[in-house]
């Protein structure tokens, strides 16, 4: 009964916190709300007319939605790079950032599920994904495993921070014996969500572009580069606009993680390029289409030739210790690295897998305004959710949100 009272008080205080703030905060939330409304309007058009309003066809059946889904799975998995040092290795330098990282993971997972709903055409078909009710094809379908691990990871990333914040809200320390088992499980689960997503593509024999043994490891390397890069950018914004001060050494340690992961990701990219182009076969046509165009079709050239230089530039700059420790350079590198990996794991991975088609036909894909509107709306939703979670968590950690026993 007491816990219920504390929970009600926490909800009340949280609502009070997220509805009050500076002028910049209210402008930010208004901007995100507008983005979500635009996304809802575009989605209503898609619900009315079906997926025909998107750029997807029977030739290219996965587009902008699944590209963002694949990328955001990696962003969600990246939280493990803060969870493991903090909860498992007891590294206090990461302690300030771990709750922010887990908040980003929750937001990313919510966006992942939203992109899946958008790609399926509408929420009315989601019952197919419910075990025991829909056609779930467990355990043979890799998509089934993907749904299970994503929802399981979302549960872990909600419950562990909630328990810690719930205890801190009451002025108590969280008991390690309660959250450490979950934290350990989340470390392995984070790796699983990305590997299973990679296996989903690798298991499609008719798509040789994805039949690559490096796909799983490269998914992890790119995730542990882009995810922590985003965390660094978010931490920079938080320490500039809030009283929650993140120490320089925390950001520098996360920057080291980004650097190593980016270097490994670049080495794997070079290995893939060697495999595709040194001794090409007819299975290399997808890669040729992506990097050089095929039979006069070259819609993806501007994308991939923007991503590769950005990736190389960010990795090279981060490799030098002095440059990495210059926060202006670091933030710039994190931003361009994030954009580069978003392109590589989005259009650079998903769309070429469908080109050319089974009979050699090249049907190019270009997202429509409706797709772009829905996508921006979902990103606005994720940012909105994260802002709410971060504002509440920061209030509790700063001691501004406390349980009053007489409340």
TrEMBL record:
Membrane-spanning intervals of the chain: 27-46, 66-85, 97-118, 147-166, 178-201, 221-242, 254-274, 300-320, 329-355, 375-396
Record's keyword annotation contains Chaperone: no
Membrane topology qualifier: Multi-pass membrane protein
Keywords: Cell membrane, Membrane, Transmembrane, Transmembrane helix
The keyword Metal-binding appears for this protein: no
Matches recorded under InterPro entries: DsrP-like (IPR054823), NrfD-like (IPR005614)
Subcellular location as annotated: Cell membrane
Family from the record: Belongs to the NrfD family.
UniProt-listed NCBIfam families: DsrP
Stated name of the protein: Polysulfide reductase NrfD
Organism annotation: Flavivirga aquimarina
């Amino acid at each position: 009964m007491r816990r219920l009272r504390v929970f009600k008080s926490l909800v009340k205080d949280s609502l009070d916190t997220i509805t009050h703030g500076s002028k910049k905060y209210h402008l930010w939330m208004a901007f995100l709300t507008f983005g979500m409304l635009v996304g809802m309007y575009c989605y209503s058009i898609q619900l009315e007319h079906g997926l025909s309003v998107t750029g997807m066809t029977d030739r290219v059946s996965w587009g902008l939605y699944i590209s963002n889904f694949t990328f955001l799975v990696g962003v969600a998995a990246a939280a493990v790079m803060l969870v493991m040092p903090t909860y498992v290795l007891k590294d206090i330098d990461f302690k300030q950032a771990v709750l922010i990282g887990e908040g980003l993971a929750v937001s990313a997972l919510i966006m992942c599920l939203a992109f899946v709903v958008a790609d399926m055409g509408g929420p009315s078909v989601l019952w197919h994904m419910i075990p025991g009710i829909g056609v779930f094809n467990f355990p043979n379908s890799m998509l089934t495993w993907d749904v299970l691990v994503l929802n399981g990871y979302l549960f872990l990333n909600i419950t562990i921070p909630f328990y810690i914040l719930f205890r801190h809200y009451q002025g108590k320390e969280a008991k390690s014996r309660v959250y450490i088992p979950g934290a350990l499980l989340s470390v392995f689960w984070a790796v699983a969500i990305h590997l299973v997503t990679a296996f989903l593509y690798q298991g499609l024999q008719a798509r040789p572009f994805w039949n690559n043994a490096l796909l799983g490891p490269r998914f992890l390397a790119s995730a542990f580069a882009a995810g922590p890069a985003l965390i660094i950018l978010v931490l920079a914004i938080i320490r500039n606009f809030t009283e929650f001060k993140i120490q320089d050494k925390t950001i520098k340690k996360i920057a080291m993680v980004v650097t190593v992961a980016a270097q490994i990701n670049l080495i794997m990219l070079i290995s893939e390029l060697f495999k595709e182009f040194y001794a090409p076969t007819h299975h290399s046509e997808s890669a040729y289409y992506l990097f050089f165009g095929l039979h006069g079709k070259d819609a993806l050239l501007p994308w991939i030739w923007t991503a590769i230089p950005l990736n190389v530039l960010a990795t090279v700059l981060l490799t030098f210790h002095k440059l990495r420790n210059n926060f202006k350079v670091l933030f710039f590198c994190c931003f361009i690295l994030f954009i580069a990996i978003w392109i590589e794991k989005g259009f650079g991975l998903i769309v070429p897998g469908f080109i050319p088609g089974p009979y050699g036909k090249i049907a190019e894909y270009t997202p429509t305004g409706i797709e772009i509107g829905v996508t921006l709306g979902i990103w606005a939703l994720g940012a909105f959710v994260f802002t709410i979670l971060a504002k509440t968590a920061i209030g509790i950690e700063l001691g501004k949100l406390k349980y009053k026993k007489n409340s």
